[in-house]
Structure formats: C-alpha cells, structure tokens
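Subject: Stress up-regulated Nod 19 protein

B.,
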Amino acid sequence: MFHRQLHVPLLTVLISSTCFVTPRLAEGEGISVKTSVFLSPPFFLHPGSVVNTYYFDIPFPRGHIALKTFNGEVIDENGNPVPLHETYLHHWVVERYYGQKGIKDEPGSSKFILVRNSGICKNTLRQYYGLGSETRKTDTWVPDPYGIEAGNPEVPDGYEEKWLLNVHAIDTRGVEDRLGCTECKCSLYNVTVDEFGQPLPEGYIGGLRCCYDRTQCRTKPDFTGIMRKLYLRYTVKWVEWVASVVPLEIYIFDVTDTGQYPSGLQASSSCKVEYMVSPCDSLSSYDCVNVKKTKVALPRGGDIVYGVAHQHTGGIGSALYSEDGRLLCTSIPLYGNGDTAGDEAGYIVGMSTCYPKPGSANIKNGEILTVVSNYSSAQMHTGVMGLFYVLVAEPRNAFLSQRLRDPWFIELEDNWWVLLLAGGLVALIAAFIHRRRNGREDYQLVFN
Ligand SMILES: *[C@@H]1O[C@H](CO)[C@@H](O)[C@H](O)[C@H]1NC(C)=O
Ligand SMILES: *[C@@H]1O[C@H](CO)[C@@H](O)[C@H](O)[C@H]1NC(C)=O
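Prediction pasted inline below.
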C-alpha cells in the first residue's frame, strides 16, 4: 500500500517533466556534459502482442549541440525497467528530419525531409541511433573531442529540425515459444500476408514481415495477463556545439548488402537487413558456426573513432576488416545470466564496442571493407541481423576532398594566413560549389 502511494507522485513527476537536465563536467575537459532523460509516448501491450510504431517530433535536446551518448530502455508505468523475457525490445531507431513548422508529421507524409546518416544502404538504415535488446549494456559514448552534430541552424526555409522514434516491441508473457516470437516465426503469428497485404515470398518463414504492428504471437491456451502501459525511456548526453568539437560521420553497414539494386522497385535497397541461419548438420560439422561476409565501400575515408555491431540471439561476434586485411573492430555479444532487467538469460543484453587508438583505424576514400557476422547454427534462426555501426572523423583540413560542413571558418582559425597565402581562396570557391551540389542530395526525401 505504502509503496503504491509513493509511486504515484513519482510517476507524475516522471511523466509531466520528462526532461531532467543535469550538467556535469567531462573528464578534465571543462566542457559541461548535459544529460536529458525523456519518455516516448506510451504504448500498450498484452501477452503475445506487437507494437511497431513511429513517433514523430519526439522530445529531444534543442540548440546547436554535439551528441555524446544515446541509450534507451523499456519501463512500465511505475518507472520500473521491464525485462526482455516480458517485453522483448526488437529494436528502437532514432531518425533526424526537417519538418515544416506548425505541421504535425505522420508516416507516409511527403511534407518532411529525412536527414539520413552518411550511408551506405540505399533507402534503408537511415538512422542516427538504433539498438535492440542490447541497449542496456552497450556503450554509446563518443570520446572527446568528437561529437555527432545536431541542431545546426542551417535548415531549409520554413522547416525545423525534428526527430522521430520507431519502437518495435513484442510482449512474450505466456507465449508458447519465446524465441520463436522474438524471431518472428510466421507460423506463430498465423500470418500469410505482410503488413501491406502482399503474400509472403516463397520460403519466407520468419522475420519482420511476420511481426508487424498489431500482430499477435501465439500464447499458451490458459494464460491470462493484463494489458500493460509501457514507455521507452531514453537518455541523451550532449554538449553545446563549440569550434573545438570534431564532427563525426555515421555509417551503418549491413552484412546482407549485395551492392545490387533490384531494378523496377522504387524503394529498393541492396541491404536486406535480415537473414536466416539454417541449422548445421551436427554430424558433418563440429563447430556449427554460420559465417556471413560481405564487402562494402566507404565512400569517404577518415579515422574510425567508434564501432559496434548489432546481432540477435544466436549471434557470437562480428568484425570489420580493412581492404588489406587489418582487423579494424570486433564486437561481441554479451548474454545475460539471470532474471532481472539488463541480465536476462538467453538474451543479448550488450555488445562490446571499439574505440581504436586515434589514427590506428584509418580508412582511405573508397576503401573496400569486409563485414563478418557469425551466428551459432546449432539451431535455426530467422530474422537475424548483422549490422555494423561506425563513426568516422574525416580529415580536418582536406578542403577539396571533403564535403564541407558549415563553419569552415573554424578550419581556418589556426592556419588562416598560411592557407590564404597558399591559395585557400580557390579551395573555398571550389568547396562552396561542392557544398551547393551536395546540399540538394542531402535533402532528398526517402521514406518507405
Ligand atoms: C489464423 O488465421 C485464420 C485466418 O486468417 C483464422 O481463421 C484462424 O482462426 C487463425 N488461427 C488462430 C489460432 O488464431
Ligand atoms: C567467425 O567465425 C570464423 C570461423 O569459425 C572465425 O575464424 C572468425 O574469427 C569468427 N569471427 C568473429 C568476429 O567471431
């Protein structure tokens, strides 16, 4: 009784003021790191049900800032973390966009302009941030002096920067087959057509096309459970944008990327995002590891500052190699061992991350990288993923090779007289032309 009463005011505080800003000083830097905690709009789940919802114009830190971390977790109405074996967080994704002032955005609208990351999957994986079950124990901190730029005042006339959040969660309380529900096995969802009413492709037995919004995974006949009101609570750490922050480019590689675009399909992509792991023949192969590899080209080079992979249950590690075979980053899943939120047995609760020593993971323009994703094939898995997310710092003074960002003055600050004497003016004119050309491509609308 007493506890219950305590929770009500706590919840009111939580929901009415969804933002707490607590400045703290970064280690020895003198720049104040601010922390904001927000709640998504509520979503409702009963045993076996699925939400896959897009929330537009979510609460987000405003102003010209450098993002340092982004993490989230599912909580209930009382603010308690919900374990993955009750609500499986398939994924959450945060995308940046320009929305018209005073307009309420919605899926499928052509009124807003997505601002996608630097690549490289066409028409998909456009997010700035995105994780799944591993969100509680995956480090997303960007070391100093780097940051992901947001709130740059330079937006098209009549627009303002906004953020959208996609949450895909599956309630697996009382289901017949927990792993099957989280792997979106079509038979458990009793689904024969996808979200758009199209028949499932031949041989498609599991994946996102079978666990779309408002589908239902099979529960045990006698199980009853209450409808729950849940939130994604997300924490953003950031600093004010200052001249000394070095901006990072975001790239997301996908091990299913074939580099081929099926023709005729408008929103086609070379990245399939999901794939299937067939069970091994335990008599002929003793290790039962499914190794998937692909080669991808990084359009512009630079230093990898941070790397992390995304895998699903069954994943045993992922790696990124340079063109000459150097290991650039390895990311290994951490599985839970218990019952509590953040340590759920059988689930990936974290991914290890890479922070290469400055300059040690350098990539040339157009370099071909190899992405490797390993899964255990001791049993079949459907709808698995092998993504690799990297943050790249482009060379700072390469005026001609680099797509220029707004404050080119900053680059000039230290050596302006040398550069001016050395024909910096020519470079600036070239860069200006380049930027105008690029600007248009960046504002391209892609939403499917
Ligand atoms: C599965 O779907 C069919 C039609 O789509 C329906 O008739 C049937 O009752 C469903 N089965 C279950 C177990 O929900
Ligand atoms: C993937 O599996 C192969 C074959 O077992 C192994 O050689 C490689 O080191 C593994 N890579 C990672 C990142 O686990």
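Residues 424-442 form the longest helix (19 residues).

T.
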